[in-house]
Design brief:
Elements lengths: L5 H4 L2 H20 L29 H15 L18 H13 L10 H18 L8 E5 L2 H16 L3 H4 L8 E6 L5 H9 L6 E4 L9 H13 L3 E8 L11 H11 L2 E5 L24 E4 L1 H4 L7 E5 L5 H5 L31 H10 L1 H24 L3 E5 L5 E6 H5 L4 H16 L7 E5 L2 E7 L7 H21 L8
Parallel strand pairs: 2-3, 2-4, 4-5, 5-6
Antiparallel strand pairs: 1-7, 6-7, 8-9, 9-11, 10-11
Helix pairs in contact: 2-3, 4-13, 6-8, 9-10, 14-17, 16-17
Length: 494
């Protein structure tokens, strides 16, 4: 029997029936987010790989789809849940879900303008909106692209920094560099920086990790001293990577002071604002990003604090003329476009084939408007303050790092009372987290900041409300007492 196009496309009735079936399941899922456990209890989890063999023949589509939805919901790990207090993985807006479905169906290819005039215009428009909110008042004088996430965005920005200082390195390679470049980032900056520098060929050891202060922000005095030491050693200070919203604490490095140092020493300033860059969409809180407009390049991840599903990263630069020398290449099968002012996307980014990752944010902004983000971010900041107040009132925890945004860094108070060493404290924190996360309702993580073991809790789902905060605080208080008793630790009596 020959292949028929309806084998893959299905017929109109089948498409409609399966579409309704899936939308009904997604609708029910969204309705459950306020009470949905993050994952099954430990005893009901199955992490074993599927042992099914590759099927030669298909099965009924409705049955397969229903079975898949059931398994993914009942056995899945649900970052959109209101009870998720973990990493920077938000509940997606429903308009973003619809946008992703439309992109998957139309499958636009953004490599060249000739094949994606409308899709590329929407991406450029969305980038322009973000650039204006950053403080770049003339978005036509900046450039960039949507990326797969912060890792690719940081990689791309550091490649631009190299091109800015060494225009011939893309063609001639690292052997053409007349000095050893050095890069600088806080000890709390994201580890994608090391990965990027390794892949760019300058080596992970070219990164200087600068000590953080008590607020987990980069120490600018230590930064200045390290730059001076490297210059004296005959090295070439090239780029400072400041962070706006560290992964573990949400700390924002002192951007104005860092920008001043970069201007003084002639260094490229890249700001990794993957998390806190969302503040730019607010009027009330954007002042926390003061100085970011002086950056040469910026990373923002809408799939963090702007409630986008994966993947949606953004890299912006005030030096658009560097994009083509860094990423451009000529091909016979993709002739250079002559379609107006927009460049071919494959010439200005690390990607070649390009998915339309901008549509979900563009559509969400068109439907809900910027003010919806202002309200969401304001509410989440208020919830973080409430969580801090209520968890400290239990007497079971202390705040290890001031809460800058929506991330709390906690230490068990018994560890402070008994002056426990770090290995014992870390064991206690892991035990508290294990007791709670094994139950499945909540998820949060442990981390280390400035060498200290901490519990890390983050408000990231727009479904999270005060009632979820109150219930979590009660469970954390009990878990702290249970864990201390299980490990044989007891508070000293006053």
């Amino acid at each position: 029997m020959g292949f028929d196009h309806e084998d893959f496309a299905l017929n109109a009735e089948q498409r409609q029936r399966l579409g309704y079936q899936l939308i009904d399941r997604i609708n029910a899922y969204f309705s459950s987010l306020t009470h949905l456990p993050v994952q099954p209890p430990l005893q009901h989890r199955d992490a074993n790989p599927h042992a099914a063999t590759l099927p030669d023949f298909g099965q009924d589509a409705a049955h397969v789809l229903d079975d898949l939805c059931t398994q993914m919901i009942e056995q899945g790990f649900h970052t959109p849940s209101a009870n998720y207090f973990g990493l920077m993985n938000p509940a997606p807006t429903y308009m973003a879900v619809l946008a992703e479905a439309l992109v998957a169906a139309l499958n636009p290819q953004l490599a060249t303008i000739a094949r994606s005039q409308l899709a590329s215009r929407i991406e450029a428009e969305t980038l322009g909106w973000i650039a204006q909110r950053i403080g770049w008042r003339h978005p036509e004088h900046c450039g960039g692209s949507f990326t797969s996430g912060g890792n690719e965005a940081n990689f791309s920005a550091l490649a631009l920094a190299l091109t800015h200082r060494f225009p011939g390195w893309i063609e001639e390679g690292l052997v053409s560099l007349n000095a050893q470049p050095v890069f600088y980032a806080s000890a709390e900056a994201h580890h994608s920086i090391e990965k990027s520098l390794g892949l760019l060929g300058v080596g992970r050891k070219s990164l200087r990790r600068i000590a953080a202060n008590a607020r987990a922000e980069m120490d600018t005095n230590a930064l200045a001293a390290q730059i001076r030491d490297d210059k004296a050693a005959g090295l070439l200070p090239l780029c400072v990577i400041a962070t706006a919203g560290t992964t573990s604490s949400g700390a924002i490095d002192p951007l104005p002071e860092i920008a001043n140092l970069c201007a003084h020493y002639g260094l490229w300033l890249h700001v990794d604002a993957a998390y806190a860059g969302a503040l730019a969409l607010t009027d009330t809180h954007r002042h926390r990003l003061a100085g970011i407009e002086r950056a040469d390049s910026i990373t923002i991840d809408p799939h963090k604090w702007l409630a986008m599903p994966f993947a949606a990263g953004v890299m912006l630069t005030r030096h658009p003329a560097l994009l083509e020398p860094t990423f451009g290449i000529d091909t016979a099968y993709l002739p250079k476009s002559s379609h107006g002012p927009l460049p071919d996307n494959f010439r200005i980014s690390a990607q070649w084939s390009r998915r339309m990752n901008s549509l979900k944010l563009w559509l969400t902004l068109r439907v809900h408007g910027r003010l919806a983000y202002e309200q969401m971010i304001g509410q989440q900041l208020a919830l973080a303050s409430s969580l801090e107040e209520k968890i400290l009132a239990t007497g079971s925890f202390v705040l290890a790092v001031p809460c800058a945004l929506t991330i709390l860094n906690l230490r068990a108070k018994v560890a402070e009372d008994l002056h426990l060493d770090e290995p014992t404290t870390a064991h206690l924190h892991r035990e508290i987290a294990r007791r709670i996360t094994d139950e499945g309702l909540y998820w949060f993580s442990t981390t280390r900041v400035r060498g200290q073991s901490l519990l890390r809790l983050m408000i990231i789902s727009y479904s999270t409300q005060q009632e979820h905060i109150d219930a979590l605080v009660r469970r954390l208080d009990r878990a702290a007492q249970e864990s201390a008793e299980a490990l044989g630790l007891f508070k000293t009596q006053p």
